[in-house]
Design goal:
11% strand; six-stranded parallel beta sheet; alpha/beta; globular; 47% helix
Length: 595
Protein backbone atom coordinates (compact mmCIF):
# COMPACT_ATOMS: atom_id res chain seq x y z
CA UNK A 1 0.00 0.00 0.00
CA UNK A 2 1.00 3.64 -0.26
CA UNK A 3 1.42 5.58 3.00
CA UNK A 4 1.45 9.36 3.34
CA UNK A 5 3.71 10.04 6.36
CA UNK A 6 2.98 13.50 7.82
CA UNK A 7 5.58 15.15 10.07
CA UNK A 8 6.13 18.50 11.74
CA UNK A 9 9.68 19.55 12.56
CA UNK A 10 10.85 15.95 12.24
CA UNK A 11 11.62 13.28 9.66
CA UNK A 12 13.30 13.45 7.16
CA UNK A 13 15.25 16.44 8.52
CA UNK A 14 18.50 15.78 10.33
CA UNK A 15 17.91 15.97 14.08
CA UNK A 16 14.16 16.38 13.72
CA UNK A 17 11.63 15.42 16.40
CA UNK A 18 10.74 11.71 16.31
CA UNK A 19 13.13 11.36 13.37
CA UNK A 20 14.71 8.15 14.62
CA UNK A 21 11.34 6.50 15.24
CA UNK A 22 10.02 7.47 11.79
CA UNK A 23 13.20 6.28 10.08
CA UNK A 24 12.97 2.89 11.79
CA UNK A 25 9.30 2.60 10.87
CA UNK A 26 9.86 3.41 7.20
CA UNK A 27 12.87 1.10 6.90
CA UNK A 28 11.05 -1.69 8.73
CA UNK A 29 8.09 -1.60 6.31
CA UNK A 30 9.93 -2.01 3.04
CA UNK A 31 6.96 -3.83 1.50
CA UNK A 32 5.01 -0.53 1.45
CA UNK A 33 5.59 2.68 -0.48
CA UNK A 34 5.97 5.94 1.45
CA UNK A 35 5.32 9.54 0.46
CA UNK A 36 6.63 11.99 3.07
CA UNK A 37 4.97 15.37 3.66
CA UNK A 38 7.14 17.38 6.04
CA UNK A 39 6.54 20.74 7.73
CA UNK A 40 9.77 22.44 8.79
CA UNK A 41 10.11 24.73 11.81
CA UNK A 42 13.16 26.85 10.95
CA UNK A 43 15.60 27.86 8.24
CA UNK A 44 18.36 26.10 10.15
CA UNK A 45 16.45 22.82 10.05
CA UNK A 46 16.05 23.10 6.28
CA UNK A 47 19.71 24.01 5.77
CA UNK A 48 20.86 20.93 7.72
CA UNK A 49 19.25 18.72 5.07
CA UNK A 50 17.78 15.24 5.31
CA UNK A 51 18.79 11.88 6.62
CA UNK A 52 19.46 9.24 3.93
CA UNK A 53 16.15 7.86 2.66
CA UNK A 54 15.42 4.23 1.71
CA UNK A 55 14.48 3.45 -1.92
CA UNK A 56 10.79 2.83 -1.22
CA UNK A 57 10.32 6.51 -0.28
CA UNK A 58 8.97 7.70 -3.61
CA UNK A 59 8.34 11.36 -2.83
CA UNK A 60 9.14 14.07 -0.29
CA UNK A 61 7.22 17.34 -0.26
CA UNK A 62 8.06 20.10 2.22
CA UNK A 63 6.60 23.40 3.42
CA UNK A 64 7.79 25.85 6.12
CA UNK A 65 5.83 26.72 9.23
CA UNK A 66 8.28 29.44 10.21
CA UNK A 67 7.78 31.90 7.33
CA UNK A 68 5.70 32.58 4.26
CA UNK A 69 7.42 34.04 1.21
CA UNK A 70 4.22 35.51 -0.23
CA UNK A 71 0.89 36.74 1.01
CA UNK A 72 -1.22 34.43 -1.18
CA UNK A 73 -3.76 35.58 -3.73
CA UNK A 74 -5.53 38.94 -3.42
CA UNK A 75 -9.14 38.45 -2.36
CA UNK A 76 -12.16 40.08 -3.96
CA UNK A 77 -15.04 41.52 -1.99
CA UNK A 78 -17.08 38.32 -1.94
CA UNK A 79 -14.09 36.20 -0.85
CA UNK A 80 -13.23 38.70 1.90
CA UNK A 81 -16.81 38.59 3.20
CA UNK A 82 -16.74 34.79 3.17
CA UNK A 83 -13.39 34.75 5.02
CA UNK A 84 -14.75 37.14 7.66
CA UNK A 85 -17.72 34.84 8.30
CA UNK A 86 -15.65 31.63 8.46
CA UNK A 87 -12.85 33.06 10.57
CA UNK A 88 -15.40 34.74 12.83
CA UNK A 89 -17.03 31.35 13.47
CA UNK A 90 -13.63 29.81 14.27
CA UNK A 91 -12.77 32.69 16.59
CA UNK A 92 -16.17 32.45 18.32
CA UNK A 93 -15.58 28.77 19.08
CA UNK A 94 -12.08 29.52 20.40
CA UNK A 95 -13.24 32.41 22.58
CA UNK A 96 -16.11 30.38 24.01
CA UNK A 97 -13.53 27.79 25.07
CA UNK A 98 -14.00 25.46 28.04
CA UNK A 99 -15.85 28.12 30.07
CA UNK A 100 -18.85 27.79 27.75
CA UNK A 101 -20.00 24.77 29.78
CA UNK A 102 -18.46 25.59 33.14
CA UNK A 103 -21.67 26.93 34.68
CA UNK A 104 -23.60 23.73 34.06
CA UNK A 105 -20.62 21.67 35.18
CA UNK A 106 -20.30 23.55 38.48
CA UNK A 107 -24.04 23.28 39.08
CA UNK A 108 -23.85 19.52 38.57
CA UNK A 109 -20.99 19.23 41.04
CA UNK A 110 -22.78 21.26 43.72
CA UNK A 111 -26.02 19.33 43.21
CA UNK A 112 -24.24 15.99 43.44
CA UNK A 113 -22.49 17.11 46.62
CA UNK A 114 -25.84 17.87 48.23
CA UNK A 115 -26.64 14.15 48.27
CA UNK A 116 -30.35 14.61 47.47
CA UNK A 117 -32.31 12.71 44.83
CA UNK A 118 -33.27 15.91 43.10
CA UNK A 119 -29.63 16.97 43.16
CA UNK A 120 -28.59 13.70 41.51
CA UNK A 121 -31.17 14.08 38.77
CA UNK A 122 -30.23 17.70 38.26
CA UNK A 123 -26.55 16.78 38.14
CA UNK A 124 -27.16 14.13 35.49
CA UNK A 125 -29.19 16.56 33.41
CA UNK A 126 -26.51 19.23 33.74
CA UNK A 127 -23.80 16.77 32.72
CA UNK A 128 -25.80 15.85 29.63
CA UNK A 129 -26.31 19.51 28.77
CA UNK A 130 -22.58 20.17 29.26
CA UNK A 131 -21.65 17.29 26.94
CA UNK A 132 -24.12 18.50 24.31
CA UNK A 133 -22.75 22.05 24.51
CA UNK A 134 -19.17 20.74 24.19
CA UNK A 135 -20.12 18.73 21.10
CA UNK A 136 -21.80 21.78 19.59
CA UNK A 137 -18.64 23.83 20.21
CA UNK A 138 -16.49 21.18 18.53
CA UNK A 139 -18.85 20.99 15.55
CA UNK A 140 -18.75 24.75 15.21
CA UNK A 141 -14.95 24.76 15.25
CA UNK A 142 -14.66 21.89 12.76
CA UNK A 143 -17.18 23.36 10.32
CA UNK A 144 -15.41 26.72 10.35
CA UNK A 145 -12.04 25.01 9.86
CA UNK A 146 -13.17 23.13 6.77
CA UNK A 147 -14.94 26.20 5.36
CA UNK A 148 -11.62 28.04 5.60
CA UNK A 149 -9.94 25.09 3.87
CA UNK A 150 -12.46 25.26 1.02
CA UNK A 151 -11.85 28.98 0.68
CA UNK A 152 -8.08 28.50 0.64
CA UNK A 153 -8.43 25.81 -2.03
CA UNK A 154 -10.47 28.14 -4.24
CA UNK A 155 -8.39 31.27 -3.68
CA UNK A 156 -4.88 29.77 -3.69
CA UNK A 157 -3.97 30.22 -0.04
CA UNK A 158 -4.70 32.11 3.18
CA UNK A 159 -1.42 33.14 4.87
CA UNK A 160 -1.73 36.89 4.33
CA UNK A 161 -5.42 36.95 5.18
CA UNK A 162 -4.90 35.01 8.44
CA UNK A 163 -2.46 37.74 9.54
CA UNK A 164 -4.60 40.62 8.30
CA UNK A 165 -6.47 43.33 10.17
CA UNK A 166 -9.69 41.54 9.21
CA UNK A 167 -8.59 38.46 11.19
CA UNK A 168 -7.59 40.52 14.23
CA UNK A 169 -10.91 42.40 14.21
CA UNK A 170 -12.79 39.09 13.99
CA UNK A 171 -10.88 37.86 17.05
CA UNK A 172 -11.64 41.08 18.90
CA UNK A 173 -15.37 40.82 18.16
CA UNK A 174 -15.41 37.20 19.36
CA UNK A 175 -13.64 38.17 22.59
CA UNK A 176 -16.17 40.95 23.29
CA UNK A 177 -19.22 38.86 22.35
CA UNK A 178 -21.70 37.68 25.03
CA UNK A 179 -20.76 34.25 26.35
CA UNK A 180 -17.02 34.64 25.70
CA UNK A 181 -14.77 33.18 28.37
CA UNK A 182 -13.71 35.56 31.10
CA UNK A 183 -10.02 35.65 30.16
CA UNK A 184 -10.82 36.40 26.51
CA UNK A 185 -12.66 39.60 27.44
CA UNK A 186 -9.41 40.98 28.85
CA UNK A 187 -7.47 40.53 25.58
CA UNK A 188 -5.91 43.69 24.15
CA UNK A 189 -4.66 44.43 20.65
CA UNK A 190 -1.03 43.28 21.21
CA UNK A 191 -2.33 39.98 22.59
CA UNK A 192 -4.76 39.56 19.71
CA UNK A 193 -1.92 40.12 17.24
CA UNK A 194 0.06 37.39 19.00
CA UNK A 195 -2.90 35.00 18.86
CA UNK A 196 -3.56 35.73 15.17
CA UNK A 197 0.10 35.12 14.28
CA UNK A 198 0.11 31.83 16.19
CA UNK A 199 -3.10 30.63 14.53
CA UNK A 200 -1.70 31.51 11.11
CA UNK A 201 1.36 29.32 11.69
CA UNK A 202 -0.65 26.35 12.95
CA UNK A 203 -3.20 26.71 10.14
CA UNK A 204 -0.54 26.96 7.42
CA UNK A 205 -1.56 23.52 6.01
CA UNK A 206 -4.85 25.10 4.86
CA UNK A 207 -2.92 26.91 2.13
CA UNK A 208 -0.96 23.92 0.79
CA UNK A 209 -1.58 22.31 -2.60
CA UNK A 210 -1.02 18.79 -1.27
CA UNK A 211 -4.65 17.64 -1.48
CA UNK A 212 -4.96 16.89 -5.20
CA UNK A 213 -5.05 13.54 -7.00
CA UNK A 214 -1.28 13.69 -7.54
CA UNK A 215 -0.66 14.41 -3.85
CA UNK A 216 -2.30 13.03 -0.73
CA UNK A 217 -5.24 11.97 -2.86
CA UNK A 218 -3.07 9.18 -4.25
CA UNK A 219 -2.22 7.49 -0.91
CA UNK A 220 -4.13 4.69 0.82
CA UNK A 221 -3.85 6.26 4.27
CA UNK A 222 -2.25 9.22 6.03
CA UNK A 223 -0.09 8.60 9.10
CA UNK A 224 0.52 11.73 11.20
CA UNK A 225 3.60 11.30 13.39
CA UNK A 226 2.28 13.92 15.81
CA UNK A 227 -0.74 16.09 16.49
CA UNK A 228 -1.03 19.78 15.63
CA UNK A 229 -0.28 20.96 12.11
CA UNK A 230 0.81 17.51 10.88
CA UNK A 231 -2.49 15.98 11.97
CA UNK A 232 -4.35 18.96 10.47
CA UNK A 233 -2.80 18.03 7.11
CA UNK A 234 -4.30 14.57 7.52
CA UNK A 235 -7.70 16.04 8.40
CA UNK A 236 -7.68 18.05 5.18
CA UNK A 237 -6.65 15.00 3.14
CA UNK A 238 -9.63 13.18 4.62
CA UNK A 239 -11.94 16.11 3.89
CA UNK A 240 -10.90 16.62 0.27
CA UNK A 241 -9.84 13.09 -0.75
CA UNK A 242 -11.55 10.81 1.83
CA UNK A 243 -8.21 9.34 2.86
CA UNK A 244 -8.29 7.70 6.34
CA UNK A 245 -6.06 9.16 9.04
CA UNK A 246 -3.86 7.43 11.63
CA UNK A 247 -2.54 9.70 14.41
CA UNK A 248 0.45 8.67 16.54
CA UNK A 249 1.35 10.70 19.64
CA UNK A 250 4.29 9.60 21.77
CA UNK A 251 4.10 13.02 23.36
CA UNK A 252 0.60 14.50 23.42
CA UNK A 253 0.79 17.81 21.56
CA UNK A 254 -1.85 19.45 23.74
CA UNK A 255 0.00 18.47 26.92
CA UNK A 256 3.26 19.83 25.49
CA UNK A 257 1.53 23.13 24.72
CA UNK A 258 0.21 23.37 28.28
CA UNK A 259 3.65 22.67 29.76
CA UNK A 260 5.33 25.24 27.49
CA UNK A 261 2.74 27.96 28.23
CA UNK A 262 3.21 28.45 31.92
CA UNK A 263 2.79 31.74 33.81
CA UNK A 264 5.12 34.42 32.53
CA UNK A 265 5.31 33.15 28.95
CA UNK A 266 2.46 35.41 27.74
CA UNK A 267 -0.49 37.43 28.98
CA UNK A 268 -3.25 35.35 30.64
CA UNK A 269 -5.71 36.17 27.84
CA UNK A 270 -3.26 34.98 25.19
CA UNK A 271 -2.50 31.74 27.05
CA UNK A 272 -6.22 31.07 27.55
CA UNK A 273 -7.11 31.64 23.88
CA UNK A 274 -4.24 29.52 22.58
CA UNK A 275 -5.04 26.72 25.02
CA UNK A 276 -8.67 26.77 23.86
CA UNK A 277 -7.63 26.65 20.20
CA UNK A 278 -5.24 23.73 20.66
CA UNK A 279 -7.80 21.80 22.70
CA UNK A 280 -10.46 22.24 20.00
CA UNK A 281 -7.99 21.24 17.28
CA UNK A 282 -6.95 18.13 19.24
CA UNK A 283 -10.60 17.19 19.80
CA UNK A 284 -11.33 17.53 16.08
CA UNK A 285 -8.31 15.40 15.18
CA UNK A 286 -9.25 12.65 17.64
CA UNK A 287 -12.86 12.69 16.50
CA UNK A 288 -12.07 12.22 12.81
CA UNK A 289 -9.04 9.90 12.98
CA UNK A 290 -9.65 6.30 11.94
CA UNK A 291 -7.25 5.05 14.63
CA UNK A 292 -5.21 6.82 17.32
CA UNK A 293 -2.00 5.27 18.64
CA UNK A 294 -0.71 6.75 21.91
CA UNK A 295 2.66 5.59 23.16
CA UNK A 296 1.43 4.73 26.65
CA UNK A 297 -1.62 4.73 28.92
CA UNK A 298 -0.71 8.19 30.27
CA UNK A 299 -1.01 9.67 26.76
CA UNK A 300 -4.13 7.60 26.18
CA UNK A 301 -5.86 9.21 29.18
CA UNK A 302 -5.10 12.66 27.80
CA UNK A 303 -6.61 11.70 24.45
CA UNK A 304 -9.73 10.23 26.04
CA UNK A 305 -10.19 13.41 28.08
CA UNK A 306 -10.22 15.31 24.77
CA UNK A 307 -12.97 13.14 23.34
CA UNK A 308 -11.10 10.29 21.64
CA UNK A 309 -13.23 7.17 21.21
CA UNK A 310 -11.51 4.43 23.23
CA UNK A 311 -12.64 1.80 20.69
CA UNK A 312 -10.38 3.47 18.12
CA UNK A 313 -7.30 3.74 20.37
CA UNK A 314 -4.42 1.25 20.08
CA UNK A 315 -1.46 1.68 22.43
CA UNK A 316 1.86 1.16 20.63
CA UNK A 317 4.96 1.47 22.79
CA UNK A 318 8.08 3.20 21.40
CA UNK A 319 10.57 0.88 19.74
CA UNK A 320 14.21 0.92 20.87
CA UNK A 321 17.13 -0.75 19.15
CA UNK A 322 17.85 -3.58 21.59
CA UNK A 323 21.12 -4.57 19.89
CA UNK A 324 22.76 -1.34 21.10
CA UNK A 325 22.38 -2.53 24.69
CA UNK A 326 22.82 -6.28 24.18
CA UNK A 327 26.41 -6.47 25.42
CA UNK A 328 25.62 -4.48 28.57
CA UNK A 329 22.40 -6.40 29.24
CA UNK A 330 24.10 -9.76 28.88
CA UNK A 331 26.98 -8.77 31.19
CA UNK A 332 25.38 -7.33 34.33
CA UNK A 333 28.50 -7.96 36.42
CA UNK A 334 30.39 -5.13 34.66
CA UNK A 335 28.76 -2.49 36.86
CA UNK A 336 30.35 -0.88 39.89
CA UNK A 337 28.23 -2.19 42.81
CA UNK A 338 28.41 1.16 44.65
CA UNK A 339 27.49 3.49 41.77
CA UNK A 340 24.13 5.11 40.98
CA UNK A 341 23.57 6.46 37.46
CA UNK A 342 21.21 9.11 36.15
CA UNK A 343 20.96 9.48 32.35
CA UNK A 344 18.87 11.99 30.44
CA UNK A 345 18.41 15.57 29.28
CA UNK A 346 19.27 18.09 31.99
CA UNK A 347 16.14 20.12 32.67
CA UNK A 348 14.33 21.52 35.74
CA UNK A 349 11.54 18.96 35.20
CA UNK A 350 14.09 16.19 35.89
CA UNK A 351 14.46 17.49 39.48
CA UNK A 352 18.16 16.81 39.90
CA UNK A 353 18.07 18.96 43.04
CA UNK A 354 15.96 16.35 44.81
CA UNK A 355 18.28 13.64 43.49
CA UNK A 356 21.31 15.39 44.98
CA UNK A 357 19.61 15.79 48.37
CA UNK A 358 18.57 12.14 48.24
CA UNK A 359 22.15 11.11 47.46
CA UNK A 360 23.31 13.04 50.54
CA UNK A 361 21.22 10.63 52.65
CA UNK A 362 22.50 7.67 50.61
CA UNK A 363 26.08 8.69 51.44
CA UNK A 364 25.30 8.78 55.14
CA UNK A 365 24.05 5.19 54.93
CA UNK A 366 26.60 3.97 52.34
CA UNK A 367 29.80 6.09 52.45
CA UNK A 368 31.29 4.33 49.41
CA UNK A 369 28.38 5.24 47.12
CA UNK A 370 28.93 7.37 44.03
CA UNK A 371 26.54 9.20 41.70
CA UNK A 372 27.18 9.75 37.99
CA UNK A 373 24.92 12.27 36.23
CA UNK A 374 25.19 11.78 32.47
CA UNK A 375 23.41 14.24 30.22
CA UNK A 376 23.63 17.49 28.27
CA UNK A 377 21.92 20.83 28.88
CA UNK A 378 20.35 22.44 25.81
CA UNK A 379 19.25 26.04 26.02
CA UNK A 380 19.98 28.85 28.45
CA UNK A 381 17.51 27.75 31.13
CA UNK A 382 18.85 24.19 31.14
CA UNK A 383 22.47 25.40 31.29
CA UNK A 384 21.68 27.67 34.21
CA UNK A 385 19.96 24.77 35.96
CA UNK A 386 22.99 22.53 35.37
CA UNK A 387 25.26 25.22 36.84
CA UNK A 388 23.01 25.44 39.90
CA UNK A 389 23.17 21.65 40.35
CA UNK A 390 26.97 21.66 40.15
CA UNK A 391 27.17 24.36 42.82
CA UNK A 392 24.77 22.42 45.04
CA UNK A 393 26.80 19.22 44.58
CA UNK A 394 29.98 21.06 45.59
CA UNK A 395 28.27 22.36 48.74
CA UNK A 396 26.73 19.03 49.73
CA UNK A 397 29.81 16.93 48.95
CA UNK A 398 33.13 18.70 49.51
CA UNK A 399 36.02 16.96 47.77
CA UNK A 400 37.11 13.97 49.84
CA UNK A 401 40.57 12.41 50.06
CA UNK A 402 41.53 8.97 51.34
CA UNK A 403 44.65 10.29 53.06
CA UNK A 404 46.57 13.40 54.04
CA UNK A 405 48.56 13.43 50.78
CA UNK A 406 45.85 12.19 48.35
CA UNK A 407 43.95 14.39 45.92
CA UNK A 408 40.33 15.06 46.92
CA UNK A 409 37.51 13.75 44.74
CA UNK A 410 33.81 14.57 44.65
CA UNK A 411 31.48 11.53 44.80
CA UNK A 412 29.14 13.24 42.27
CA UNK A 413 30.30 13.59 38.67
CA UNK A 414 28.65 15.43 35.76
CA UNK A 415 29.38 13.90 32.35
CA UNK A 416 28.13 13.86 28.77
CA UNK A 417 27.73 11.06 26.24
CA UNK A 418 30.82 10.91 24.06
CA UNK A 419 33.23 11.89 26.83
CA UNK A 420 36.00 9.43 27.77
CA UNK A 421 34.06 8.33 30.85
CA UNK A 422 30.93 7.50 28.81
CA UNK A 423 31.76 7.00 25.11
CA UNK A 424 28.34 5.54 24.30
CA UNK A 425 24.88 5.46 25.85
CA UNK A 426 25.31 1.78 26.74
CA UNK A 427 28.59 2.60 28.53
CA UNK A 428 26.79 5.19 30.65
CA UNK A 429 24.24 2.62 31.86
CA UNK A 430 26.96 -0.01 32.32
CA UNK A 431 28.82 2.26 34.77
CA UNK A 432 26.28 1.82 37.57
CA UNK A 433 24.42 -0.96 39.29
CA UNK A 434 21.24 1.10 39.85
CA UNK A 435 19.69 3.62 37.42
CA UNK A 436 17.74 6.48 39.01
CA UNK A 437 15.02 8.71 37.56
CA UNK A 438 13.91 11.67 39.72
CA UNK A 439 11.54 13.56 37.37
CA UNK A 440 8.51 15.56 38.44
CA UNK A 441 7.14 15.65 34.86
CA UNK A 442 7.55 12.81 32.39
CA UNK A 443 5.83 11.29 29.39
CA UNK A 444 7.13 7.89 28.43
CA UNK A 445 10.50 7.40 30.24
CA UNK A 446 12.82 6.38 27.41
CA UNK A 447 15.83 6.39 29.73
CA UNK A 448 14.15 3.79 31.97
CA UNK A 449 13.36 1.57 28.97
CA UNK A 450 17.02 1.80 27.91
CA UNK A 451 18.17 0.94 31.44
CA UNK A 452 15.82 -2.05 31.42
CA UNK A 453 17.32 -3.27 28.13
CA UNK A 454 20.70 -3.03 29.87
CA UNK A 455 19.46 -5.31 32.66
CA UNK A 456 19.70 -2.64 35.35
CA UNK A 457 17.56 -2.35 38.47
CA UNK A 458 15.82 1.03 38.59
CA UNK A 459 14.52 3.50 41.16
CA UNK A 460 12.12 6.07 39.75
CA UNK A 461 9.43 8.59 40.68
CA UNK A 462 5.75 7.92 40.07
CA UNK A 463 5.09 10.38 37.23
CA UNK A 464 3.78 10.02 33.69
CA UNK A 465 4.00 6.49 32.32
CA UNK A 466 6.76 5.35 34.70
CA UNK A 467 4.71 2.68 36.50
CA UNK A 468 3.40 1.40 33.17
CA UNK A 469 6.92 1.11 31.74
CA UNK A 470 8.58 -0.43 34.79
CA UNK A 471 5.79 -2.82 35.75
CA UNK A 472 7.00 -4.78 38.76
CA UNK A 473 10.66 -4.74 37.73
CA UNK A 474 11.80 -1.66 39.66
CA UNK A 475 11.15 0.48 42.73
CA UNK A 476 8.84 3.48 42.38
CA UNK A 477 8.59 6.32 44.92
CA UNK A 478 6.59 9.57 45.11
CA UNK A 479 8.07 12.61 43.29
CA UNK A 480 9.77 15.42 45.24
CA UNK A 481 10.50 13.06 48.13
CA UNK A 482 14.29 12.81 48.59
CA UNK A 483 14.01 10.59 51.68
CA UNK A 484 11.89 7.95 49.89
CA UNK A 485 14.24 8.09 46.89
CA UNK A 486 17.27 7.61 49.15
CA UNK A 487 15.72 4.68 51.04
CA UNK A 488 14.92 2.86 47.78
CA UNK A 489 18.45 3.38 46.48
CA UNK A 490 20.02 2.16 49.71
CA UNK A 491 17.78 -0.92 49.72
CA UNK A 492 19.06 -1.95 46.27
CA UNK A 493 22.69 -1.06 46.98
CA UNK A 494 22.64 -3.38 50.01
CA UNK A 495 20.91 -6.31 48.26
CA UNK A 496 22.84 -7.56 45.20
CA UNK A 497 20.58 -10.60 44.74
CA UNK A 498 17.49 -8.43 44.56
CA UNK A 499 19.22 -6.11 42.08
CA UNK A 500 20.05 -9.08 39.87
CA UNK A 501 16.47 -10.38 39.96
CA UNK A 502 14.97 -7.01 39.15
CA UNK A 503 17.51 -6.36 36.39
CA UNK A 504 16.83 -9.69 34.69
CA UNK A 505 13.06 -9.16 34.90
CA UNK A 506 13.41 -5.63 33.57
CA UNK A 507 15.43 -6.79 30.56
CA UNK A 508 12.89 -9.52 29.76
CA UNK A 509 10.03 -7.00 29.95
CA UNK A 510 11.81 -4.46 27.74
CA UNK A 511 12.66 -7.09 25.11
CA UNK A 512 8.99 -8.07 25.00
CA UNK A 513 7.46 -4.57 24.83
CA UNK A 514 9.95 -1.89 23.80
CA UNK A 515 11.81 -3.11 20.70
CA UNK A 516 11.78 -1.82 17.14
CA UNK A 517 10.46 -5.16 15.92
CA UNK A 518 7.28 -5.04 18.04
CA UNK A 519 6.74 -1.39 17.11
CA UNK A 520 6.98 -2.02 13.35
CA UNK A 521 4.83 -5.15 13.53
CA UNK A 522 2.13 -3.25 15.45
CA UNK A 523 1.95 -0.47 12.87
CA UNK A 524 1.88 -2.99 10.03
CA UNK A 525 -1.20 -4.62 11.58
CA UNK A 526 -2.83 -1.21 12.09
CA UNK A 527 -2.19 -0.20 8.47
CA UNK A 528 -3.91 -3.35 7.27
CA UNK A 529 -6.81 -2.79 9.67
CA UNK A 530 -7.38 0.77 8.45
CA UNK A 531 -7.22 -0.11 4.76
CA UNK A 532 -9.56 -3.05 5.31
CA UNK A 533 -12.18 -0.93 7.08
CA UNK A 534 -11.69 2.42 5.28
CA UNK A 535 -10.60 1.69 1.69
CA UNK A 536 -10.07 4.71 -0.56
CA UNK A 537 -12.45 4.60 -3.52
CA UNK A 538 -11.00 6.82 -6.19
CA UNK A 539 -12.25 6.76 -9.82
CA UNK A 540 -9.67 6.06 -12.52
CA UNK A 541 -10.30 7.67 -15.89
CA UNK A 542 -9.07 6.81 -19.36
CA UNK A 543 -7.79 9.27 -21.97
CA UNK A 544 -11.32 10.43 -22.82
CA UNK A 545 -12.26 11.08 -19.20
CA UNK A 546 -14.57 8.08 -18.83
CA UNK A 547 -14.29 5.57 -15.97
CA UNK A 548 -11.84 2.80 -16.82
CA UNK A 549 -13.29 -0.68 -16.07
CA UNK A 550 -11.06 -3.09 -14.11
CA UNK A 551 -8.42 -0.36 -13.79
CA UNK A 552 -7.10 -1.61 -10.45
CA UNK A 553 -5.91 -5.23 -10.53
CA UNK A 554 -6.57 -7.49 -7.57
CA UNK A 555 -2.87 -7.75 -6.79
CA UNK A 556 -2.49 -3.98 -6.44
CA UNK A 557 -2.52 -4.16 -2.62
CA UNK A 558 -0.09 -7.07 -2.36
CA UNK A 559 3.53 -6.42 -1.35
CA UNK A 560 5.57 -5.14 -4.25
CA UNK A 561 5.53 -2.30 -6.76
CA UNK A 562 3.05 -2.55 -9.63
CA UNK A 563 2.75 -0.27 -12.64
CA UNK A 564 -0.01 2.31 -12.29
CA UNK A 565 -2.77 2.34 -14.89
CA UNK A 566 -3.13 5.36 -17.13
CA UNK A 567 -4.81 8.12 -15.18
CA UNK A 568 -5.88 11.67 -15.81
CA UNK A 569 -4.73 14.00 -13.02
CA UNK A 570 -5.79 17.60 -12.69
CA UNK A 571 -3.54 19.73 -10.48
CA UNK A 572 -3.90 23.28 -9.21
CA UNK A 573 -1.58 26.10 -8.39
CA UNK A 574 -0.60 26.67 -4.80
CA UNK A 575 1.23 29.35 -2.83
CA UNK A 576 4.80 29.96 -3.80
CA UNK A 577 6.17 29.34 -0.31
CA UNK A 578 5.00 25.70 -0.32
CA UNK A 579 7.79 23.43 -1.55
CA UNK A 580 7.11 21.13 -4.45
CA UNK A 581 8.25 17.55 -5.06
CA UNK A 582 11.55 17.68 -3.22
CA UNK A 583 12.83 14.38 -4.59
CA UNK A 584 12.37 15.68 -8.09
CA UNK A 585 13.96 19.06 -7.42
CA UNK A 586 16.07 19.51 -4.27
CA UNK A 587 17.02 22.97 -3.10
CA UNK A 588 20.39 23.84 -1.67
CA UNK A 589 23.63 21.89 -1.21
CA UNK A 590 22.67 20.73 2.27
CA UNK A 591 19.82 18.63 0.94
CA UNK A 592 22.06 17.10 -1.73
CA UNK A 593 24.69 16.28 0.85
CA UNK A 594 22.18 14.68 3.18
CA UNK A 595 20.91 12.44 0.42
Amino acid sequence: MRIGLLTEGGYPYVGGDAGLWCDRLVRGLGQHEFDIYALSRSRRQEDEGWVPLPPHVSRVRTAPLWTAEDEGAAYGRRARRRFTECYGELAAAVCAGPDATSDTGSDAASDAASGTASGTASGAASHGASAAASTHLTDRFGNALFELAELAREQGGLPGTLRSETAVRALERACRAPGAQRAAREARVPGLLTVAAHLERVLRPLSLDWYADDGLGSVDLCHAATGGSAALTGLLAGHFCEVPLLVTEYGVQLRSHYLASGPGTAAPAVRSLLASFHRLLATEVYRRAAIITPGNAHARRWQERCGADRTRIRTVYPGLEASRFAETGESPDRADPDTLVWVGRVDPAKDLVSLLHAFAEVRRAEPAARLRIVGAATGREAQEYLGHCKVLAAQLFPDEATGAHAVGENPVSFEEIGAPEAPTLADAYAAGTVVVLSSVVEGFPISLAEAMLCGRATVSTDVGAVVEAVGGTGLVVPPRNPRALAEACVALLRDPERRARLGAAARARALELFTVEQNVAAFHRIYLEIVAHCPVRRPILDETGDPLPFAVPAEAHLPGHWPDPATRVVGRAGPGWAGGDALAQATGPAAEGAR
